[in-house]
Amino acid sequence: MALDKLDRKILQLLQKDATMPVAEIGRKVGLSTTPCWRRIQKMEEEGVIKRRVAVLDPEKVNAGVTVFVAVKTNEHNDAWLRKFAAVVEDFTEVVEFYRMSGDVDYLLRVVVPSIQAYDVFYKKLISRIALSDVSSSFAMEQIKYTTALPLEFAVVGD
């Protein structure tokens, strides 16, 4: 889907506040409510907008410790990857999961209330799947965090 400048403006607004009324979005981008709503609907249908969510404060929901977990494995086959993905899917503590290039095979971002809670998570993880090496790094401070994607790279039509 080619996005024009109005679509990008709409997306910028929705990334900041998905609860903003369509009429207000339309006013801010120079459209009436109906054409603005149609654009949003089309971007949802095309999968540009995957879902609308609430962003929570980790401290207020007792998930204030962020751990980056680098995983190495000697298993490099589809069956093992499917099993590992299924295991990771079961852990609500894992909020991001990536297959990597370079020295690390997989990277997980895990959120927990404490180092002790991470230890419990770690023991459960290694009891369910064989890993060659697991290295954990605890975030000391979050300096930047956003769920907003940069839109200057979006394909622009018209």
TrEMBL record:
Q: Identify the SUPFAM superfamilies for this entry.
A: Dimeric alpha+beta barrel, Winged helix' DNA-binding domain
Which PANTHER family does the annotation name? DNA-BINDING TRANSCRIPTIONAL ACTIVATOR DECR, LEUCINE-RESPONSIVE REGULATORY PROTEIN
Which keywords does this Swiss-Prot/TrEMBL entry list? Answer: DNA-binding, Transcription, Transcription regulation
Q: Spell out the PROSITE patterns in the cross-references.
A: HTH_ASNC_1 (PS00519), HTH_ASNC_2 (PS50956)
What is an example of a GO molecular function annotated in this UniProt entry? sequence-specific DNA binding
SMART domains given in the database record: HTH_ASNC
Ranges for domain HTH asnC-type come to 3-66
**Transcription among the record's keywords?**
yes
Q: What is this protein called?
A: Lrp/AsnC family transcriptional regulator
Cell inner membrane found in the keyword field: no
This protein's source sits in the domain of life called Bacteria
Q: Name one GO biological process term.
A: regulation of DNA-templated transcription
Q: What cellular component GO annotations does this protein have? A: cytosol
